[in-house]
Write a structure and sequence with these properties.
Elements lengths: L5 H17 L8 E7 L2 E8 L2 E5 L6 H10 L5 E5 L11 E3 L31 E4 L3 E4 L8 E6 L2 E4 L7 H10 L22 E5 L11 E5 L4
Parallel strand pairs: 3-5
Antiparallel strand pairs: 1-2, 2-3, 2-6, 4-6, 7-8, 8-9, 10-11
The structure holds 2-acetamido-2-deoxy-beta-D-glucopyranose (2 copies).
The site of one 2-acetamido-2-deoxy-beta-D-glucopyranose has 2 residues, from loops.
Length: 220
């Protein structure tokens, strides 16, 4: 029988905790956009500790919807093909990616085996996401409940001040054409929480971020 003194027990415990904390964090499915901002650029995937690119074959906006959601980057605006944001180097990890749009990660969409592709880096795909505005719970990316990223967090938009000029700016920003009236449907998901962002646009702005935004806090 082995007798371990309390000191040694503490030491063993400490050692195993220290070793556990040295275990590498899992990195599966990590993605990033390399380009002018956090939310637009060349799509890259981390696999086997190496960042690699994604081929633009079959890319549609539904693929971008998954990427923008995965990166918390607002609404998907555009897929840009042909190495628009420059050519990556090393591996091309993904090819023939086809998402329905509801997947939680790009790796959950249909795709070829990781690392298997018939592309060159001149076909690296790029994505542009809105960054500061998103439309949730609608039937497609152009309708639903509006949220803006303001003061460092996502907030819903107050419907009392939402009119045609706000909808004009939003629809232009997210490449969704002109607004279809009625542009506002009251949303009563939490009737006690009256907080939100009051937006005031002229309608000629290219993005909601250029409108006057004011955070309102309060509850009934
Ligand atoms: C609305 O969309 C968000 C984000 O996709 C999701 O988490 C939430 O469950 C949805 N809510 C409803 C009522 O469908
Ligand atoms: C939009 O219109 C307003 C009022 O007509 C004007 O003051 C403003 O300069 C315009 N903004 C842009 C970005 O054109």
């Amino acid at each position: 029988m082995v007798f371990i003194s309390s000191d040694k027990l503490h030491y063993a415990l400490y050692l195993s905790i220290a070793l556990l904390s040295l275990l590498p964090l899992t990195e599966c499915g990590q993605i990033r956009l390399v380009g002018p901002s956090r939310c637009s650029g060349r799509l890259e995937v981390l696999h086997e500790d190496k960042w690699g690119t994604v081929c633009d074959d079959h890319w549609r906006i539904t693929n971008a919807v998954v990427v923008c959601r995965e990166l918390d980057c607002g609404t998907a605006l555009e897929v840009v093909k042909g190495a628009f944001f420059g050519m990556g180097k090393d591996e091309i990890w993904l090819d023939d990616v086809q998402c329905a749009g509801h997947e939680s990660s790009i790796l959950k969409c249909a795709h070829r085996q990781l690392g298997e592709s018939n592309c060159g880096h001149n076909e690296d795909v790029g994505i542009i996401c809105s960054d500061n505005v998103r439309v949730l719970n609608g039937s497609n990316r152009c309708n639903g409940r509006v949220e803006v990223h303001h003061n460092g967090h996502w907030s819903r938009v107050c419907s009392s001040d939402w009119g045609i000029s706000e909808a004009d700016t939003l629809c232009r920003e997210i490449n969704c054409g002109v607004p279809v009236t009625p542009s506002v449907v009251p949303h009563f998901d939490d009737a006690h929480d009256m907080s939100g962002v009051k937006t005031s646009c002229f309608g000629n702005e290219s993005s909601i971020a250029q409108c006057t935004l004011q955070e309102l806090k309060g509850s009934l």
